[in-house]
Every structure is written in C-alpha cells, then in structure tokens.
Amino acid sequence: MTLKLPTSNLIKKQSAYRANANYLKQFLGCKSLTILFSIIFNFNLLYSQVAKTQVVQLESKANTDGTITLKWPAENYTGNYVIYKRDANQNIGTWSGILATVAGSNSNWTDATMKSGMEREYLVAKVNGNNTEALGYIMAGNKTVAKPNIGGIILLIDSSYIIALKNEINILKSDLTAAGWKVYVQFAGRSEKADVIKSRIAGSLDKMSIRARALYIIGHVPVPYSGYFSSSGDRPPPDGHVEGSGNHTGAWPADVYYGDLNGIYTDRIVDCTTGGDTRNHNKPNDGKFDQSVTVENIELEIGRVDFYDMPAFSTNDTQMVKDYLNRVHDWRLGQTPFVSRALIDNNFTGLNLASSGYHNLPTFVGIDSVFDTRDYFQSQTTGNYLWSYGCGAGSYTSCSGIGTSTDFATNQSKFSNIFTMLAGSFFGDWDSKNNLLRSSIAAGSLNCMWAGIPKWYLHHMGLGSHIGLGAKITQNNENQYFNGNFNGSWRGVFIALMGDPSIQMIPVQPVSNLSASSKNGIVTLNWSSAENVDGYYIYLHDTTTGEFTLASALRCPNSVSYTTDTSYTDNCNWTTGNFRYAVRAMKLTTTGSGSYENLSLAKFVNIDNVNAVESVKNTEINIRVSPNPTIDKTLNVNGLISNFTSEIKLFDIQGKAIKIWEVNPLNGSIKLDLPSNTAAGVYQVQVIQNQLQFTQSVIIQ
Q1: Tag placement on the chain: N or C end, fewer CB within 10 Å?
Q2: DSSP labels for 134-146?
Q3: Is the pTM above the cut of 0.90?
Q4: Nearest Cα to Cα of residue 332 among 541, 171, 504
C-alpha cells in the first residue's frame, strides 16, 4: 500500500487565499506584506502560530535492544498519530502502508522491527477524521553502520582564486578525499556565459571514474538568472512582492540551472522589466532564462560560497572566501566548539515559514534542546548554538526581529552559530549587495538557506548525511511533502544553499602520527588519537576512484578491519605491492535522530609490502605483472624469455583456473586481456617457463 495523504481543509483554504492574493493587494491597497499576510493567514484563528501547529516535532531514541522509539510533544489530541516508514533504499515519495496508529493521548511509539545498524525514515501524520493537520519527518537509526564512501564532487572555482587561494583549495581537496569524496576541479571565469559553464559540467560527467553527485561553487562564478516572477507571470515572486508591493519581479538567481542537466532552458519568451532592481529585469535573448521552476529533477547537490559585493564586511571577497575555507577545514578536524542546541526566533507567527525550523531542528538536537523564546542575536553573541532559525519581515539586508547584514558584520567575532536558516522578504534573492543569507556565512555560519519559502527537508543530517542531500531533496520536492508550498514556491529556480554542500553536522577528530611498516609480508599500522572515540576502521584507499574498501574485505575476508587499539596488524601476507592504507576514527554519535557510526576524515599512509613466500619462489626469474591493482581488465607481463613459449594461468581465490594463455613474445613482454566477465577480486597469476614457476597475486577492480 502506498501512502496517499488526505488533503486537509487548511491546505485547501491556504491555496485559495494565495490564489486571491493579488486581488486582495489591489482591493486593500496594501503596501505592507506583513499586513496582507496577517489578513490572509489569520482568517482561520484556529491556525494562529501555524508553523508550530502544522509540524509534528520528532526525535528518536536508540534503545539498547536495537530498536528505536519515536517521541513527540505530549498533548491531549482528539485524533490519532498515523505512522509510515520508508527504508533507506526506497525512492523519495514512496511510503509504506500504515505502520502503526497511535492514540492522540500518547507521545511516543517504539518500532520493534528495527535492528541495530539499520536506518529508516518515518512520517508521522497527525490525523483528525479526514483531515491531516500536521506532519513530522525523521531519519532514525540505532548504531547505523558507517558509510565511508559518498561519491563524486565537482569544485567549480572562480578562476581569479587560482593563485590567491591555491593552498586553501589544495587543503579542501585533501579534506574532501579524506571524507570519502572523489574530487574533480573545474575553473570558470567571471565573464563566461552560464550555458558554456553548464555544458562543460555536463560533458565531463560521463568521463569521471566516479560520477559526480555534488557541485560546490566557490567564488563569483557567473550567476544564472531565470524566471518570470510577476503578478502576470508564471508565478508570483516567492516572497509575494508583486508589482505595486515591492516590485521584486522578473528573474531571480538560479544556481539550480547548473544541476538541471537534462532540462531545456529558453531565453526568448519572458519580457518583464517591472522589477525594482535591474538585476531582475528579464527580456528575450538577454542571457536570463524564462523558466520559473526547474524543468527536470536536479541531478547535482549544489552549494555556493560567494562573497562578491559585500562591503558591510571589512575585507574583500578573496579574503572572505579564504577565511570561510579555513573555518570549514577547522570544523572537519573537530576543532570548532559547539553546543548541541538550537534556536528559533519566529517573528511571523501567523505564517507557516518557521515550520522548517520546527521540523528539522528537533531531529538534530532533540525537542527539549530547541529554544523558541530567546532573542536571535543576543542569544548567539552570549552563547553557542549548533543550529538557528530566524524569520521576519525582510529586505535585502535585514530581517525584522532578527537583525541586519551590518549586525552580522559587527558581531562577526562573537557570532557562534554553525548552521543557519533565515526567511523573510527579498533576501532569498541572494545575488544582491550585502545579502543577508551570505552575511550569515561571512559572519561565522557554515551554511545558510532561505528556509520556509519553500519548506526545507534536512532531517537526514541527523544520521550523518551531508547538507547537500537535503538541498537537492528540497529543490526536487513537488507534492510528496506537506505545507511547504508557500506562495507557489515548490521547485522554484531560486532555491539555493549558501555554503559548502559536503558539510556534515557533527565532526570527529581524525587520528594523527599514522605510520606503517612491513616485515615478512605483514603490515603493521600505528597512530595516535586526538580524542575519545569508540574505535577505528582500517581501509585500503583507491586513488583512482577515491573509494575506501575495508582492508579485510579486499585482502582477507575472514579477518577484521576494526579495532579499538591504536595499532593494526594486517596478517594477510599473500600479496606483494604498494598499498595505500587509511585509518578513520569512529565515534558512536547520538543526535535527536538516534545513533550512528560517525567517521572522521581519513589519514593515509603508503607502504611497499613484499610477500616473503612469493619472494623465495621468484628469485630465479625476474618477471613482473602490472598494473596491480588493475582497473581495465588488462595485465602486462614483463621479464619473459623472448621467442620462448611460456604458459600463463589466471586462478581465482579458490584456486580455480579461469584463463590459460600460451605466449611466445618477441621482446619478453606481453599484454593480456582478461575475460570481460572477470569479477573484481584477488587472483593469482602463474607463469611457467623453462621449467621455472613464478606466481604473483593481483587485484582486479
């Protein structure tokens, strides 16, 4: 059974209210959206404080028996809580049938089918009769198993930083590699055309050893603009400021264009110059695109750090990007202090904007660690918060009840908030002077987003996912989630993540002083730990693909690649070659979503290992088999006797001969094509010539 959510009366009413918004503006002569929104959304007084009432705030507790218990605030609700699930490998939008129905007087439920090591996404619906009045989402787990590999990431870097930020870019590449990404770098000039850059990105994807899943834009890479946001256009401006009420019309910044690889964007239809800022004017053939919504699903998880035109801050954009990259580096190393708590400052209590905060933040820090009665700047300049959410009537550089871009700049040394959500008028148009979203990450946050227009879905971060995944889910979200379509904002081209898309929520300090030695075919690793962790995973690292494989899985399946000691001995001594070992500290981390195995950045060490048994066999002949490992199903055998027939056999790990060649090379070398169906694994190559035998282990990837 697939979940089909009932449509609540509230949703129907809000849709009707939004459809009549322009008429009300003209009829009332409203110049203040705050007044207009108050009229629209407080019409039904039952739903005052709608952001909080339309969310089931959720947290998850990991139990000692491997199960998890979902919890939500207790209330004497007259309806029921209906629970659905979706396992990690299920498609977004596909939910199971009803997993459980819980009476409204209850405030928790235990999933007895969960086991240690698993993760599962839950939807909890607050249902009264035929009306779904609130929803909550959480990705919950109990000791969820570590995921060392993430995928490919493209660094699209402003070419003006090639020399100025060379060191910081190299550190970033190293950090991303150590986190499980395969890194690709492209540069773009500030005067290039967006469509040329996009073509370059698309053309490179199929050539990658690991296809990129993320795009990290660094600097003032050309900003695509797209859309016909107008009272007479495809959609009203997402902040509601149509002609006569702010004139925030026309085209808006649209980084999603770079990740919408299959969508066709045109520049020949829209003719809109009613915007108060000429940046937003959109005319045919002017380089700004027509589309207001994404044409296809976004393929890449996109984030941008760009401090161009931010004079409120005392340094130039190059130095600000440098400072940001250094802050992120410190964060990944576990060197940035933080308190696991969150702040919500909701100055739009009659609107549904703050639901992004009430939904996500409890899954990160727990319900009791979310505070919503404290002042935004006063709290953060006197205390530390992992997450914050703030909303209020806005301009490009201000948010009523929150502060201004200048506040961020002047409090830069005191501001102590790692992840930020903000919502209000105008500053979602982020390519503006002293933009408020960009000011927050210039001041000290690592990420910021215009959350609430539409609602953002980041709850996967509670079990260790990086923030770009939630950005992509939000950008592709259409109708599988509830109460996020404020002012027709679903799938809007303006939805954007400020900051590095690869950042994870809780860092673990990596090991130090890693060393390796080889004796008689046995490799020994030693290291030091920087903090109290629960153990260490030992991997072999493939520099071609960037992937980590447990040393035991690749070399010795009956062994283990996990230890609680600060040393590891690899006793699988049947192979000779150069290996790159990686050690990653693991800390069992508890959040509002349960618990998971949280990995540090990897520390690497290369070692030449010589198998003692093989070396005795091979002293009488000098044969070499390469490359080892091999990735293209070919082997080169060198050192054979020229013009002499030799026999070469390929054995699998069980000793079965899967291919036999008879060769008579002219120059002592031969290239062997392996069977196309040869699976990845460890094999033995045996060469017999002139009554002498040579054997070497090879790894086929």
Answers
A1: N
A2: EEEEEEEEEEEPP
A3: no
A4: 504
